[in-house]
Amino acid sequence: MSSTENEKARILELRQKHIGSNVSLHFASSTPLLILKGEKEFLYDEHGSSYLDCVNNVAHVGHCHPHVVAATTRQCAALNTNSRYLHPALVDYSARLSKTFPEAAKLEIVFWVNSGSEANDLALRLAKEHTKKRGVICVEAAYSGHTDRLIGISPYKYGRKGGIGRPKSWVKEAPLPDVYSGKFRGDIADDSLGQKYAAEVDKLLSEYDLDFKAEQKLKSMRDARLALSGDEGADEESRAMRYLDECLLQDDGLSTGCGAFIMESILSCGGQVMPPAGYLKRVYDSVRKHGGICIADEVQVGFGRVGSAFWGFQLQGPDIYPDIVTVGKPIGNGFPVAAVITTREIAKSFDNGMEYFNTFGGNPVSASVAHAVLDVIETEKLQENALKVGKVLIEGFNALYAEFASAPVCIGSVRGTGLMVGLECIKGERNGNREPDGECCIAVKLHAYTHHKILLSTDGMFDQVIKLKPPMCFTEEDAKNTCLAIREGLLLVKERRMGMKE
Amino acid sequence: MSSTENEKARILELRQKHIGSNVSLHFASSTPLLILKGEKEFLYDEHGSSYLDCVNNVAHVGHCHPHVVAATTRQCAALNTNSRYLHPALVDYSARLSKTFPEAAKLEIVFWVNSGSEANDLALRLAKEHTKKRGVICVEAAYSGHTDRLIGISPYKYGRKGGIGRPKSWVKEAPLPDVYSGKFRGDIADDSLGQKYAAEVDKLLSEYDLDFKAEQKLKSMRDARLALSGDEGADEESRAMRYLDECLLQDDGLSTGCGAFIMESILSCGGQVMPPAGYLKRVYDSVRKHGGICIADEVQVGFGRVGSAFWGFQLQGPDIYPDIVTVGKPIGNGFPVAAVITTREIAKSFDNGMEYFNTFGGNPVSASVAHAVLDVIETEKLQENALKVGKVLIEGFNALYAEFASAPVCIGSVRGTGLMVGLECIKGERNGNREPDGECCIAVKLHAYTHHKILLSTDGMFDQVIKLKPPMCFTEEDAKNTCLAIREGLLLVKERRMGMKE
Question: Is the pTM of this model over 0.95?
Answer without folding.
Answer: yes
